[in-house]
Amino acid sequence: DKYQVDDKKTYPKKKPPERRGSGPIEIRVDRELDLHEMTVDEAIANLEITLEEMNSTHSKILRIIHGGGFGKYGPVKKYIDRHLNGPLRSKISSKRKEGHNSGATIIFLK
Q1: How many whole angstroms separate alpha carbon 69 and alpha carbon 84?
Q2: How many CB atoms within 10 Å of residue 34?
Q3: What does the longest C-alpha to C-alpha distance in the chain come to?
Q4: Which of 16, 40, 72, 96 has the greatest number of CB atoms lying within 10 Å of its CB?
Q5: Which has more pLDDT, 98 or 2?
Q6: Rounded to the nearest 10 degrees, what angle do helices 40-56 and 74-85 cross at?
Q7: How far is CA 62 from CA 1, 2, 16, in A?
Q8: Residue-level pLDDT at 44
Q9: pLDDT of residue 1
Q10: pTM score, two decimals?
């Protein structure tokens, strides 16, 4: 089907425009912290320890896997976000949700 017929005239079919930048961006991380099955207190303690270790090794990019915010993972995600925006804010240059995975956050350390 290379041609499109309209009112007895034949035209070459146009290709749809290419989409650029529509796929997820893969980011190489220095470290990954999986908080599944942890309580809020355990998750925050592990996050703080991990950030201290990363600081001492000059690592800069961390993927925090906290779960999607539903069910039993909801409190962990919410409190990790609060902690990153509060007490830990001075250690972080930026953060964002991982593009294809709402259950993970990527943080960039100063």
Answers
A1: 16
A2: 14
A3: 73
A4: 40
A5: 98
A6: 40
A7: 48, 48, 38
A8: 93
A9: 47
A10: 0.70
Specify the pairing of strand 9-12 against strand 3-6.
antiparallel
Phi and psi dihedrals of 90, rounded to 5? -70, -15
- Asked if 90 and 101 touch (Cβ cutoff 8 Å), the reply is no
Question: How many residues in total does the chain contain?
Answer: 110
* Tokens (6 digits) for 65: 């896997």
Structure tokens at 64: 């925090």
What is the three-class DSSP state of 5?
A: strand
Structure tokens, 98 = 């991982």
> Any bridge partners for residue 61, and if so which?
108
The helix/strand/coil state of 12 is strand
The phi, psi pair for 46, rounded to 5°, reads -65, -35
Which amino acid is present at 25?
Answer: I
Backbone dihedral angles phi then psi of residue 61, each to the nearest 5 degrees: -125, 125
Query: Phi and psi for 28 in degrees, rounded to 5?
Result: -80, 125
Q: Which two tokens stand for residue 60?
A: 């800069």
Report d(CA 19, CA 41) in Å as an integer. Answer: 43
